[in-house]
Amino acid sequence: MLQKRVTYTLIVLSLFIGTALAQESSIYTQADKHYREGLHLYEKGKFGAAQKLFQKAVADFGPDVNQQKADAEFYYAMCAIELTNADAEYLIGQFIAKYPESQKADLAYFQMGKLRYMERDYKNAVYWFKKTNKNAIHKDLRPEHSFKLGYSYFSLGQKDDASRLFFEIKDTDNKYASPATYYYAHIAYEQKNFATALKGFTKLSNDDTFAPLVPYYITHIHYLQQDYQKVVDYAPDLLESASPKRAPEIARLIGESYFHLRNYPSAITFFEKYTEKAQSISRTDYYIIGFTYYRSSNFEKAAQNLERVSTEDDSLSQNAYYHLADCYLKLNDKNKARQAFGMASKSTYDPIIKEDALFNFAKITYEMFYSPFNEAIDAFREYIDQYPDSPRTDEAYNYLVLAYSNTKNYKDALISLEKIRNKDANTRGAYQRVAFFRGIELFQNLSYQESIEKFDLSLKFPEYNRILMAQALYWKAEANYRLGNFEAAAKDYNEFILTAGSFELPEYKIAHYNLGYANFKQKKYDDAIVWFRKYADITAKELTPMLGDAHNRTGDSYFIQRRYWVAIDYYDKAITVNTLDGDYAMFQKAFSFGLVERPEKKIETLIALLEKYPESSYLDDALFEIAESHIILNQPQDAAKYYSQIVRNYSGSSYHVKSLVQLGLIAYNNEQSDSAMGLYKRVVEQYPGTAEAKNSLTGIRNIYVDKGDVNAYFTYAGQLGSFANISIAEKDSLTYIAAEKLYMEGNCSKSSVGFSSYLAEYPKGNFTLNASFYLADCQLREGQTDKALQNLIFVIQKQKNAFTEQALLNASRAYMLQKKFAEAFETYTMLEDLAEVKNNLLEARIGKLRAAFALDRHNDAVLAAAKVLSSDKLAEEQEREARFKMAKSYIALTQITEAFDQLATVARAPKTIEGSESRYLMVKILHQQGNLDKAEAEVFSFAEVNTPHQYWLAKSFVLLADIYADKDDFFQAKATLQSVLDGYSNTTDGIIDEATSKLNELVKTEKDKQAATKTDTIEIKFKE
């Protein structure tokens, strides 16, 4: 039994071992099958299907390690590489970590390097290629390893490492030899090793891949070696077969080579081919092309190209500007030549060019009379300072004196002249002229005291120009007159008239008229008569506008002296001349007849006034005086007709209340007591506290007394308060008179206390109007504007009285000072409606204009300006202000045509602030309308007349740069902005910042257009 059991056990064990061996053999057979099928698919490039089989093979092999399993894992990772799966690098890492001694590890590194190479991840490609032991991979793969590692270095900018690797394989027999040769030669080319590069590129001349490209390099190398003859011999044939991308560059190299060979016609031929096809042209190319045209005497095309060079501050730009200036001289365009010389003179790269350019810039600027910022003066002074030993220094000095004598930028010129300590005769002559015209500029801008100072400076050197001396005296007199210095004005006018040569001047005649006024203002009436009569004598045949006024003032002078008959004669002359204020002359003539007791002639003259001047401001005066004359002639009914006419038609007139009183008196004298009572009560109740109210109250009392009804009078008077209480009225009167006396003595501080006390004690007193007005006047003088306005409003709200007009004027002025423009506008409107004094009417209209303009009420401003312009005796500055504000309001209302017309009128006085801004606005409008040529001409016209208000001139030049830019004339645009930067002195008003910004923008635009073409390389692609 034991033997059987042992035998049985052996049989079972044998069966088990046999079964186990059979199972293991089956597993390995299955893994081998998957592995071999996967390898078959891998070799066919079916990496996705192969990877699945390799995965199965690895799984079938189980945990045991053997060569075939390792190979399966290797190819599994290789499939991931070929499929560029994200886990490829991980699988390679796993394989190498698991099988570090595997012969396939280096191949794995190599394949991983290729993967990163294909992904253009050259940094990691270098990492994997460098881990590869090149000798451990198959010899057929070694050239590929060297090339791709070399190209990775090349792409990373490690040119020396790349060159070494390319050198290893460039002369071997493999498919990487040609590209390695190309890149090796290219690196040599970049490193300026031209002999090596030329050898390499020449070797590739027949290569299918590189043959189209290497002639481009060969041409470049010949050019860089300055072998220009080889370029022109070799390169022209390439143009026919060159690609559109390469052809322009080859044409450029040929053109430049001909340029260096001084064969300019041939150079131009190829430059034209280059510029026709090139996508971008560098500034160096523009310079050479421009210089080639310059050498060929084609100055127009030379200028077109040289203009495009100046986008950098370097010697190339300086040379371009210098030759550009000569081109423009040849083309007879002095302005552009001047600009180019000016730009060349700013650079210091070539001292010879700088000196010559500076002198020529100064000279041409002077010859063109173009110095908006005193460029000629500054340039000649700079030349003299920098080159004192130059043979042209004397010539420069002579030009400098002439520039001073002809400048129109008087402000800066005078500052410059003041710096010259030792002035010779020529310089003193220039000083006389410049100081005089600077004085005129200041006068036109209403800076009268400053203008006098400049006229005095001019008069320091009277001997150089007697005419200027005489004119300086005249305008000094005018300035003194405007300042109210009438005695000084009379002295200067008189000296002017007596100065030799003054007789020939246009100011001579008007000086007599002005001298008459200067004496009239001083109340020297005999002297005033003399000068007004002299003026009338020398202008009698001319009928000047001032002739009638001169006769009127002569008449007034006699009138003031009570020589009424003589006054009548001169008023008659003013009426006959009929040039100015004929209605005034008739009224004064009539009034004079009244004073010489000729009431009939007075009436006759006044009726003629009514008929001849139906719109006269003297109509209510005339009606009242006619009525008064009828009273004198004891013709009360005739008088009543005229008084009644005033009451009906002139309720706002100061004669209204007086006419009511007179009508009451006529009615009373005609025993029409009820009618008289009504008229008197109307005055008392509507005009309380006035002298007329007092007279009317007396009339009312008389009527009640006549009726025997005194109690009724007392009852009525009692209703009127203190006004009608005799004892209180007396106290009232005394209190007021005490304050008034102090006021009339000019003691505002004490009179203000008195008036305030009076108004507090007698709020309805007889003199509340007077007290309120006088108190307001003192408060205004003391700066208590709000309190003053309260009192002025009290006066204004009453019926029109003797103070109404002045109260409105004072209140309007106060509101303007407080910048309460809406209130000022309303108050000025009231004044305009009520004003009887012409000066007040004009001030009301001007005030309305200013208030409306400040409020941006543009329609109101236009209407107010029109009213100002319709006024009599409008001063130039007032007309200018009205037209200017009208124009700006029209602009705001987009009524551009109307605005432009007004601006054009104001712009005739460019020395004034309004005139200079108007010039700028005209340019701006023309530019916005696209009328570029007219806008440009307007700027130059502005520069020619010049202005002391350099801000607006500079603004115009900045705008001129925009105009040139719109014309695609970037050269003039830049030169114009540079002239502003060089000549404009104020650095805080925004002009310099604006000009700098625009200049930088222009330069950037040009640089973008002239982006230099980069030499490019090709990327070689191989079939792997």
Could you describe the 3D structure shown?
The protein is mostly helical. Helices cover 75% and strands 0% of the residues. It has 54 helices and no strands.
SSE map:
Elements: H1 2-43, H2 47-61, H3 67-82, H4 88-98, H5 105-118, H6 122-131, H7 142-155, H8 159-169, H9 177-190, H10 194-203, H11 214-224, H12 228-234, H13 238-241, H14 247-260, H15 264-277, H16 283-295, H17 299-306, H18 315-330, H19 334-345, H20 351-367, H21 375-386, H22 393-406, H23 410-418, H24 425-444, H25 448-458, H26 466-482, H27 486-498, H28 507-521, H29 525-539, H30 545-560, H31 564-577, H32 582-595, H33 599-612, H34 619-632, H35 636-649, H36 655-669, H37 673-686, H38 691-707, H39 710-719, H40 726-744, H41 748-761, H42 768-781, H43 785-797, H44 804-817, H45 821-834, H46 838-854, H47 858-869, H48 876-892, H49 896-906, H50 913-928, H51 932-945, H52 950-966, H53 970-983, H54 991-1009
Helix pairs in contact: 1-2, 1-3, 2-3, 3-4, 3-5, 4-5, 5-6, 5-7, 6-7, 7-8, 7-9, 8-9, 9-10, 10-11, 11-12, 12-14, 14-15, 15-16, 16-17, 16-18, 17-18, 18-19, 19-20, 19-53, 20-21, 20-22, 21-22, 22-24, 23-24, 24-25, 24-26, 25-26, 26-27, 26-28, 27-28, 28-29, 28-30, 29-30, 30-31, 30-32, ...
Mean pLDDT over all positions: 87
Shape: elongated
Rg from alpha-carbon coordinates: 52 Å
Q: How many helical stretches?
A: 54
Overview in brief:
The protein has 54 helices and no strands.
Please name the defining characteristics of this protein.
single chain; 1024 residues; mainly alpha; 0% strand; elongated; disordered N terminus
